[in-house]
Amino acid sequence: MVKVIASSLRKGNVVEQDGALHVVLTAENVHPGKGNSVTNVNMRRISDGVKVIGRWRTVEMVEKADVDEREYDYLYSDGEGHHFMEPENYEQLVVGDDVVGDQKAYLADGMKVYLKTFEGNAIAIELPARVTLEIVETEPVVKGQTASSSFKPATLNNGVRTMVPPHIGVGTRVVIMTADGSYVERAKD
């Protein structure tokens, strides 16, 4: 365990509170106009999965656990969970939906992800920032709308809905941000 300042906590960190280990889901530093700055943290208790809210003054010291972070290859998903393989020793790790969450829609065969593990259990996953997907459903392209700043809804081949520029049609490959599902650009491949 290492003591760190509360304002340095980030998603995926593991902290000890009340004798139990928690993984940080979100951390936000709040600086009110009057009074002390505070760090609000949403956490999940590792032992039983219960979500907990932590609140510290930004200058308080918090116990942070040492977490192993390695690159894994995504293999497949089934009833057990999501299967990943460590590329150096071919060791496999099964990760549940509670850790992967909404990001499971972006998992693709062979994708390289970073898994944070604590004592052999996966506690957080980090996908590549961008993925390339294909548009399977959207409104037809309207001639003359290429310079418009408006967006239209589209469905991607992984089932996720996003907003794309009006000149993008069905069958077009686009780059999407995995954090929020937003359109970045047309794929260059």
TrEMBL record:
GO cellular component terms given for this protein: cytosol
Domain Elongation factor P C-terminal: from-to ranges: 131-186
Domain spans labelled Translation elongation factor P/YeiP central: 69-123
Localization in the cell: Cytoplasm
Pathway where this protein functions: Protein biosynthesis; polypeptide chain elongation
Matches recorded under InterPro entries: Elong-fact-P_C, NA-bd_OB-fold, Rib_uL2_dom2, Transl_elong_fac_P/YeiP, Transl_elong_KOW-like, Transl_elong_P/YeiP_cen, Transl_elong_P/YeiP_CS, Transl_elongation_fac_P
Presence of the UniProt keyword Cytoplasm in the record: yes
Pfam family, one: Elong-fact-P_C
Protein's job: Involved in peptide bond synthesis. Stimulates efficient translation and peptide-bond synthesis on native or reconstituted 70S ribosomes in vitro. Probably functions indirectly by altering the affinity of the ribosome for aminoacyl-tRNA, thus increasing their reactivity as acceptors for peptidyl transferase.
NCBIfam families in the record: efp, PRK00529.1
HAMAP family in the cross-refs: EF_P
PANTHER family reported for this sequence: ELONGATION FACTOR P, TRANSLATION ELONGATION FACTOR KOW-LIKE DOMAIN-CONTAINING PROTEIN
Family: Belongs to the elongation factor P family.
Name of the protein in its database record: Elongation factor P
Species per Swiss-Prot/TrEMBL record: Devosia enhydra
Gene designation per UniProt: efp
